User: Which sequence fits this backbone?
């Protein structure tokens, strides 16, 4: 089959790193082509080059048989290339419709024709089984929906070659299945899809061809029938595929976090979290499973003091946290890994060491007497975090936006876990982290647990949830609907509890 | 290191050159000879007296620039400095005139009064934002109108002392509440100064600059402020209370804004009158933009704009051109600076990348080159 995209010898350098080192990539027309590789391998960079967002320093790009040079995404879009980024790029305060047509408004004589746009969008959505509501405000959407908006936005611009950068990282298994259905549909319609993914079984399931990149170079291009997940992992990181598995229990009967009948509203003011009662013990990892949007986010925000309870209580070490702000809770030893790193966890333009300080800016070693910033000590501490958690960066002085997505995540996980904590609220801690580094994070979590940390773990990765948790709660529509023993539950079972299919039996 | 400094000064210098070129064109259109105009400005502007006047002008501009910069640091657009300083000046003038205190204390009370008034007036905008979600641009515009056209005019009419002069002014502050001129100190290093006095308040402005720099870059509060400006949700998740941050920034900015009228009040006018300098609050926005919110940058910006303002008088006197030409020059400098900063930043990044490339290319073992080019490992 003819090549839709052919990249030859693409090289891209950033200060202190070569992101792409003469990478070759050959994507056949009409196939689903996966790109795998560890964090910082250069996947996103390569895709941004293909999408015209960044110029390559060297190399050739051939699209549909013609050599091309892009100086902006506009030119790539004109040739039918579209990209959905690792970190979504939607304007929160605009509606779905406005976001989709932004920059490609159908207009007559300068006046935007909203009705036509709305019709067209619904049409595009129906064609590929992507359901969205054009008039919803983007800030009220769940991640899965946001992603659909991004995909429709790309299709709306007439893309025939789609680039999806880690589309499944933010999805729960049911949503992944739906996305894959959409992808197959698109392929059947003749689209070519290039996508990036760290979950190897997903890659094997959906792709026609897999290219593995390591340290900025093309390592190999393989067919899914010829390899196993283990082979892929080895190609990627040169090590074995890790399994999240907990060893001996370290759970004590000392209660660290206790919620009693806690309730909270969502952003629109309607009740979201109901009657939540739970305990987390010293040395315990409590997993919370649930489809996104069933109250986990509200619970996490209530725990860290960003959302008031409407009734009930939350306590830390037996003390009710009524009226405690986020800073006080952090100072009391609550760590927080936010689910959305770019929104809640990073200061993109600030150096890494100031990012490591974020959330601990009233505490040693970053600050003395709660007031004076200790630059040297802060940088020193950040260096330790960078080493221990294998954050790939030229130095702790580079701005956070210069790090690859997975490395940003490692920094956030690392700085939280290396603080003096009694409890950790970890929302999707390994989101976007490659298989090798994932194992390292799991290991750190186990260590911390053995040392007495109480952890609330929220994850869309059910294997991670089952493998790490001592106890599992399932959340549905703002309530705990089941408590499960991770030792005798499979991801499939868990999935049906999450969608409510097994609530009756489990809720007893 | 040398490169670093070069990049730091490249943008402002480029901006000034561009501004000179564009201003020359404007001058030509106005029928003036740009060379003679610049020559006159330079000759007049480098006199000791003009430099003193420039510093007197730059001092309030600097304070105003810092007041605006505090808000800018967390994406608050406080355009209310104008109203804050006018209101602070008249109330401070009145308080200063009514109290009887020993010298240093008297000045301190006036300063404190001005800061409190500025802080309260600005705090109203902050309060409206955190409780009613009123955008600070809207509220500060209204507060400006209320302060300048409403309250201050009213107060001035009430506090005006009927005396033989026709001047509408508050009662004069007794001498214990004046700030001494710094002429004797300058004269130690230069020559005798004629006609003009260097206002002592410049010392306060320098202290404000140092405190601002240290607070922003070296303290937790400054970090909270910068973090809130960079990413408000992440700052909130890190424990900064967004509402408190807004109040802090507005109140701190207002307190500094309160100082803007004092160099003149304590240095020369000693009373609030109809001729009291207006417009410094708006000029502060330009100064903050030009100085990119840094303590040093704002100082340079204040000096440049202050100098243009003072040195331009000569254009009219010598018949080169109307002095309004300088408003155009100031505008062009600001625009050019903003553009130049962006261009230089891009250039610096490109050079960094090229340097990195050179370094990494040298490290690459020759035998690997062929293998990698083939796409295999
Ligand atoms: N704008 C930038 N400035 C400097 N360095 C950059 C920039 N963007 C990327 N890099 C560097 O380039 C390398 C490749 O980054 P890239 O984002 O392509 O990785 P990735 O393969 O997508 O990783 P991940 O799986 O973590 O998303 C990293 O070392 C990163 O730090
Ligand atoms: Mg990436």
Assistant:
């Amino acid at each position: 089959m003819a090549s839709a995209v052919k990249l030859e010898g693409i090289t891209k350098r950033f200060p202190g790193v070569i992101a792409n080192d003469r990478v070759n990539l050959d994507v056949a027309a009409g196939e689903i082509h996966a790109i795998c590789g560890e964090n910082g391998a250069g996947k996103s960079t390569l895709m941004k080059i293909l999408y015209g967002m960044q110029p390559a320093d060297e190399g050739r790009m051939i699209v549909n048989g013609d050599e091309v040079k892009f100086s902006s995404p506009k030119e790539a879009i004109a040739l039918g290339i579209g990209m959905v980024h690792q970190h979504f790029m939607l304007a929160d305060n605009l509606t779905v419709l406005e976001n989709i047509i932004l920059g490609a408004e159908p207009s007559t004589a300068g006046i935007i024709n909203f009705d036509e746009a709305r019709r067209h969008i619904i049409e595009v959505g129906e064609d590929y089984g992507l359901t969205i509501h054009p008039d919803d405000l983007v800030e009220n959407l769940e991640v899965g929906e946001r992603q659909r908006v991004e995909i429709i936005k790309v299709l709306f611009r007439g893309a025939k070659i789609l680039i999806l950068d880690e589309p499944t990282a933010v999805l729960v298994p049911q949503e992944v299945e739906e996305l894959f259905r959409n992808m197959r549909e698109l392929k059947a319609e003749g689209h070519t899809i290039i996508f990036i993914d760290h979950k190897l079984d997903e890659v094997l399931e959906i792709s026609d061809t897999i290219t593995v990149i390591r340290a900025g170079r093309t390592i190999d291009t393989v067919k899914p029938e010829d390899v196993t997940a283990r082979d892929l992992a080895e190609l990627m990181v040169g090590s074995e595929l890790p399994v999240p598995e907990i060893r001996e229990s370290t759970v004590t009967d000392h209660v660290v976090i206790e919620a009693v009948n806690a309730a909270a509203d969502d952003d629109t003011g309607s009740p979201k979290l109901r009657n939540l009662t739970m305990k987390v013990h010293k040395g315990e990892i409590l997993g919370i499973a649930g489809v996104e949007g069933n109250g986990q986010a509200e619970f996490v925000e209530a725990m860290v003091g960003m959302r008031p309870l409407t009734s009930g209580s939350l306590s830390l070490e037996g003390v009710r946290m009524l009226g405690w702000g986020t800073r006080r809770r952090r100072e009391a030893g609550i760590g927080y890994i936010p689910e959305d790193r770019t929104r809640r966890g990073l200061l993109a333009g600030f150096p890494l060491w100031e990012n490591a300080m974020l959330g601990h800016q009233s505490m040693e070693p970053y600050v003395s007497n709660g007031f004076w910033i200790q630059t040297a000590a802060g940088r020193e501490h950040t260096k330790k975090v960078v080493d221990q958690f294998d954050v790939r960066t030229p130095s702790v002085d580079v701005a956070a936006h210069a790090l690859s997505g997975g490395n940003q995540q490692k920094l956030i996980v690392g700085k939280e876990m290396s603080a003096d904590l009694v409890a950790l609220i970890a929302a999707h801690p390994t989101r976007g982290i490659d298989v090798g580094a994932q194992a390292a994070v799991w290991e750190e979590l186990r260590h911390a647990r053995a040392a007495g940390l109480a952890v609330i773990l929220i994850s869309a990765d059910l294997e991670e949830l089952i493998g790490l948790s001592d106890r599992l709660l399932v959340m549905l529509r703002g309530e705990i609907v089941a408590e499960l023993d991770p030792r005798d539950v499979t991801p499939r079972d868990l999935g049906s509890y999450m969608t409510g299919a097994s609530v009756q039996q489990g809720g007893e | 290191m040398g490169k670093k400094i070069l990049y730091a000064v490249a943008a402002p210098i480029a901006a000034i050159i561009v501004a000179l070129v564009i201003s020359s064109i404007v001058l030509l259109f106005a029928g003036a000879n740009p060379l003679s105009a610049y020559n006159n400005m330079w000759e007049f502007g480098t006199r000791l007296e003009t430099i003193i006047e420039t510093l007197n002008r730059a001092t309030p501009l600097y304070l105003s620039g810092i007041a605006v910069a505090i808000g800018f640091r967390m994406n608050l657009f406080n355009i209310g400095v104008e109203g804050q300083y006018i209101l602070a000046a008249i109330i401070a003038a009145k308080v200063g005139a009514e109290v009887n205190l020993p010298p240093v204390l008297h000045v301190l009370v006036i300063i404190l009064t001005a800061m409190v008034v500025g802080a309260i007036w600005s705090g109203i905008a902050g309060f409206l934002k955190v409780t009613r979600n009123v955008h600070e641009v809207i509220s500060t515009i209204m507060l400006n109108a209320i302060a300048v056209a409403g309250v201050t005019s009213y107060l001035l009419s009430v506090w005006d002392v009927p005396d033989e002069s026709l001047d509408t002014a508050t009662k004069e502050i007794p001498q214990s509440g004046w700030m001494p001129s710094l002429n004797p100190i300058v004269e130690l290093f230069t020559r005798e100064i004629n006609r003009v006095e260097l206002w002592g308040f410049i010392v306060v402005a320098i202290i404000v600059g140092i405190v601002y720099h240290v607070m922003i870059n070296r303290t937790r509060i400054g970090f909270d402020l910068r973090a809130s400006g960079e990413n408000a949700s992440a700052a909130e998740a890190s424990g900064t209370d967004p509402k408190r941050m807004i109040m802090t920034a507005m109140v701190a900015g207002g307190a500094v804004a309160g100082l803007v009228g004092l160099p003149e009040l304590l240095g020369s006018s000693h009373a609030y009158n109809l001729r009291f300098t207006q417009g410094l609050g708006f000029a502060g926005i330009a100064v903050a933009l030009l100085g990119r919110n840094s303590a040093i940058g704002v100082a340079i910006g204040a000096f440049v704009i202050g100098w243009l303002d003072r040195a331009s008088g000569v254009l009219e006197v010598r018949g080169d051109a109307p002095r309004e030409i300088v408003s155009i020059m100031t505008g062009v400098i600001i625009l050019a600076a903003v553009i130049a900063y962006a261009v230089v930043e891009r250039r610096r990044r490109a050079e960094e990348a090229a340097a990195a490339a050179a370094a990494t290319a040298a490290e690459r073992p020759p035998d690997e080159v062929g293998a990698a080019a083939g796409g295999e490992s």
